[in-house]
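User: I'm putting together notes for a lab meeting next week and I want to include a structural view of one of the chains we've been expressing. I don't have a solved structure, so I'd like a prediction I can at least talk through. The sequence is below, exactly as it appears in our construct file.
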Amino acid sequence: MRGDRRQRSRGWLKNSVVGLALAVALPFGVSVVEAGTAHAALDPSGFDFYVDSASMGPVKSRVFRAADGNTSRVVYVLDGMRAQQDLSGWEINTDITHALTAANINVVMPIGGQSSFYADWNAPSSILGVGDGGSSSGSSSLSSSGSASGSSSGSGAFQLLGGGPGKSYRYTWETFLSQDLPSALQSRLGFSRTRNGIFGLSMGGSGALTLAAYHPDQFSFAGSFSGYLNISAPGMREAIRLAMIDAGGYNVDSMAPPWGPQWLHMDPFVFAPRLRDANTRLWISAASAIPGAGDVTGIMPVIQGVPLEALALVNTRAFQARMMSLGANNVTYDFPATGVHNWNNWNAEVYRMLPDLSNNIG
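Assistant: Thanks for the context. Below is the predicted structure for the 362-residue chain, given as structure tokens.
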């Protein structure tokens, strides 16, 4: 009888949380559509590279070797909020590995980290203490689209109490990317763990700046494309809350308590002086949110991509003003006249950034 009451209570909680999430998300335009099927574009020039994390278990990365075989020039490439467990969105949706390796740069693409912001989380993602006992592989809970732009994502609100990466264990991505992965790359492939580059899109852009700010010996270059670089601004925490619900059913409160040290640790606007003082070379970009010719592939990508890019642009302009107020002269800003929150925009940005990246690593 007591067990039945617990089951009924859990069912009520699940229905209430999902209902609340949908009620909040829908007015903000978060998509609730059936997810499409992703067509992974495996690049045969890359290989899988597994490294153990004490909290996350074996984590896969994809590695692409520089054309000249050097081990001193390395760049980490971070995914967006809908990061999949098989391949990076960069490998699926772009051709950047060919350009980077041809420029004699070794490419490391960490796989996974859906909605993680590549941070060390406070706890496994759960809602009111429920929902953190799911499968660590996350295979049953991941959106099949895997699109960082959210073009056919479906609603993660239905996954709030389900399993998935970071729900049966605590995300420790900053530790993994600054300690476990570079150590393994050095010991097994001879890769340098100093003067590396790092860049990412959206969530990954924010994460790239965080890693560069707190690990300046490791990263001499960092790039953010359409990143959220002022997350303590009014309304941003709730905007991130909705985005994380939609991208896999994650709880921002499990990541970091509001306005505490962990949250401020993740805010580029707050830690901007670190990037200036270390003279870390930065490439900061966000597009106008005006669709270009290559962006109009359907109504939903435009409806979703426009407001997301507009929000990223406001955040990025705020970060620009902050860095200018600090007298920082180690930043290149790029604000394309057209472009929305999608892979077409980010792929093109890598090609514009590449010369600067090449000149400031290794």
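A couple of points you could mention at the meeting. Confidence is low (pLDDT under 50) at residues 1-39, 133-153. Residues 144 and 288 are 29 Å apart (CA to CA).

User: Perfect, that's what I needed.
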